[in-house]
Amino acid sequence: MKCRMRQRNSNRPLAVLVCALISVCAASLSEPQTSTNAQVTAASGSQQGVFLVFPFENGGASPRLDWLGEGLEELTIQRLSAAGQQVYTHAGRVSELERYGLPASAKLSRAAMLHVAGDLDADFVIFGRFASDGQKLTVESRILRVNVATDRTGVSSPALLPPVRESGPLNSLMDLHLRLTWRLLSASDHTYSRSLAEFTKAQRPLRLDAFEHYIRGLLAPEDEARLRELREAARLEPDWPDPDFALGQAYFVRRDCNSALPWFARVPAAHARHLEAVFSAGVCRLLLNQPDRAEETFTALQDSLRNSGGPGTEQPEILNDLAIARERQGKRQPAQSDLRRASEMAPDEDDYPFNLGLLALRAGDFAAAAGYFRDASQRAPDNPEDRALLIQSLERAGKKEEAAQEQEAAKEALGTDTLPAVRLEARSVARGKSQSEAEADSLTRLERIKTELGDIALRLGVETAEPDASASASDAASGTPAAYVRRGRQELAAGRLDAAEREFRAALRVDETDAGAHRGLAEIDRRQGKLDDAVKELQASLGARDSAAVRTMLARIYLEEKKPDLARVEAERALKLAPNYSEAKQLLDRLKNTKPGGVAQ
Q1: 8 A C-beta contact, residue 393 and residue 357
Q2: What does the pLDDT look like over 494-525, one tens digit per residue?
Q3: pLDDT (mean) for 105-132
Q4: Which CATH architecture best describes the domain 204-270+277-285?
Q5: How far apart are the first and last CA of the chain?
Q6: What is the C-alpha to C-alpha distance for residues 257 and 91, in angstroms, rounded to an integer?
Q7: How far, in Å, are 282, 301, 324, 331, 533 from residue 285 at the CA level?
Q8: 139 - beta bridge partners?
Q9: Exposed / middle / buried, residue 303 (Cβ in 10 Å: 0-12, 13-18, 19+)
Q10: Are 374 and 390 contacting, i.e. CB atoms less than 8 angstroms apart?
Q11: For residue 510, what are the β-bridge partners?
Q12: How buried is residue 51: exposed, middle or buried, by Cβ count under 10 Å (0-12/13-18/19+)?
């Protein structure tokens, strides 16, 4: 049974990263002097915080070693995580680049890296390069501290630390990189207490050939090559969960759920991708039309998040798919409750009210269905399916005149006389089913299953290992603005607005100009209908750090306030910062046919 599945677009066009991406003084990113480094180290104290790692640059090595660029990124992430550090996953970095229309392999300037780190509230950026003559390999890495107090006034600015280099035979890559990572941490943080032996003991021993097959599998452009490489990595390292998860995902993308499920089942609970593995397994159960097993999977996932005691204990994507599983079993009331909660948690997402509309159609409550589809069409005005179901629901509710008005509004908004055909019963009636059975089948085909989790908890792309006594104090950075902002975003993602506000305001008590905290407060104000307050917070955020995402959010609020001219100005400014930022492009397209009515800024 086919279902409608919504997922992110991973094939966005290559963007030109312009100099206006961020305003960073060249001097602040130049090679620091020795005296500056001493000041930085003394001012920053312990280096606990969140790391963001970029691919290493191939500095003249053979093209056959190009895989090492992302390979060294992934290896750095894994080893920092094993050492108890918090570090964004490769997927977390790629997700942020995709927002700006940039491919995962885009070569970024240091200023651009700093901008991405700022939007993710990362504390440290790691990047590097490698070179080889075919026999010997040299790898260089360095840390860019995102915000460091450099003088008595407490003014924060980025600081680039000296490079750390290691060289050795090509086949010594794993040991070479291990020493490099330990030196990088200990040289840049004088309070780092682990010896090289202790650091090594915390790492998973890994065969170089298995790691190479794994990275080549991730980078392979074709499915068969990807599966072949990943299966070889899993064969060589049968207790290493990373190839298992990657294989599950590769089969899942192909919708080969019978092949995906055994691989997902091999990902242990302690692994950073376990949550995604379980979620994808639940989606597979829906695709295989096993709603009872899907409900069991999603319920267990919710319970696991809730028992973790941390923020992000509810996720709208999980609630949405749990609701679909329950509705297919006739459990309409709990399904409605799940979808309403998801809809409240994600006020810009149209899939959740759309699925609520389908529930109402199944119940024969056409007036309620029209209300849900109207909500969906207001959240996503360019979605013709939302509007088509709204019109059909109004007609069934006997509101012919209102349906005709919506038809005209749809033509004006979408620039077409034709909406998608969504007759609910015709295809199945032709197969000999009753009209009610046929309509139920049609509604099932229209269900919008979420196939990917959004940004969640410190899993906003962050991978972290279990801390132990030999690691630096894990709460050393808990009082930094970035740490408060991350926790605030986690609470916001879970729909706990009061808790989120407390975290954002705590960040502002430390740094009243923190851009992330002002942006978080703006989101809370928006959800509470305080649009003027939201505008003020966004303007404060932009005063601290320009951002295409913040300007696009500001444009949306201006549009809600019926100020299209102001919205247009902000969308255009967002595109000047990031020419291929898809959300700003979509908003500007919507505004093209809007009649001027606001006051130009």
Answers
A1: yes
A2: 778 899 999 999 999 988 988 889 999 999 99
A3: 85
A4: Alpha Horseshoe (1.25)
A5: 52
A6: 22
A7: 5, 14, 11, 17, 44
A8: 130, 166
A9: exposed
A10: yes
A11: none
A12: buried
Residues 281, 294: Cα–Cα separation, whole Å: 8
| Cα separation, 479 vs 319, whole angstroms | 32
Domain with CATH 1.25.40.10 in the chain: 204-270+277-285, 271-276+286-450, 482-591
Q: How far apart are CA 527 and CA 343, in angstroms?
A: 12
In 147-240, which ranges are continuous DSSP H helix?
173-188, 196-201, 208-219, 223-236
Q: What is the pTM of this model?
A: 0.78
Structure tokens at 120: 């993710």
Q: Which residues sit opposite 143 in a β-bridge?
A: 126
CATH number, span 19-26+38-203: 3.40.50.10070
Q: Using CA atoms, how far apart are residues 386 and 408, in angstroms rounded to an integer?
A: 15
pLDDT band at 23 (very low <50, low <70, confident <90, very high): very low
Contacts of 64 (CB under 8 A, 6+ apart): none
Report how far apart, in Å, the C-alpha atoms of 522 and of each of 36, 220, 335, 515, 572 are.
36, 41, 30, 11, 20
CA nearest 379: which of 360, 358, 354?
354
132 — phi, psi (to 5°)? -150, 145
User: What are the CA-CA distances from residue 520 to residues 118, 405, 414, 491, 593 (Å)?
Assistant: 14, 37, 32, 10, 31
Q: What gap in Å lies between CA 474 and CA 482, rounded to an integer?
A: 15
Residue 120 has a pLDDT of: 80
| Residues 100-127, mean pLDDT to the nearest whole number | 82
Name the strand (E) or helix (H) holding 67.
helix 67-82
Closest by Cα among 110, 117, 164 to 141:
164
Domain 271-276+286-450 CATH class label: mainly alpha
**Taking the CB of residue 446, how many other CB atoms lie within 10 A of it?**
18
d(CA 87, CA 85): 6
Amino acid identity of residue 469, one-letter, is: A
Residue appearing with tokens 């065969």: 207
For residue range 321-376, list pLDDT tens digits in order.
999 999 999 999 999 999 999 998 888 889 999 999 999 999 999 999 999 999 99
Decide if 451 contacts 81 (C-beta within 8 A): no
SS3 108: coil
Beta carbons within 8 Å of 264's beta carbon, 6+ residues apart: 244, 245, 248, 252, 277, 278, 280, 281, 284
Query: What are the structure tokens assigned to 197, written together?
Result: 């032996």
Q: Is 493 helix (H, G, I), strand (E, B) or coil?
A: helix
Contact predicate 192/47, CB 8 Å: yes
Distance CA 424, CA 241 (A): 44
Residues of the chain with CATH 3.40.50.10070: 19-26+38-203
- Residue type at position 574: A
Of how many residues is the chain composed? 601
**Is there a contact between 321 and 285 (Cβ–Cβ < 8 Å)?**
no
- Which CATH number describes the domain made up of 482-591? 1.25.40.10
Q: Is 275 exposed, middle or buried (0-12, 13-18, 19+ CB in 10 A)?
A: buried
DSSP-derived 3-state class of residue 47: coil
- Which residues fall within 8 angstroms of residue 299, CB to CB, at 6 or more apart? 322
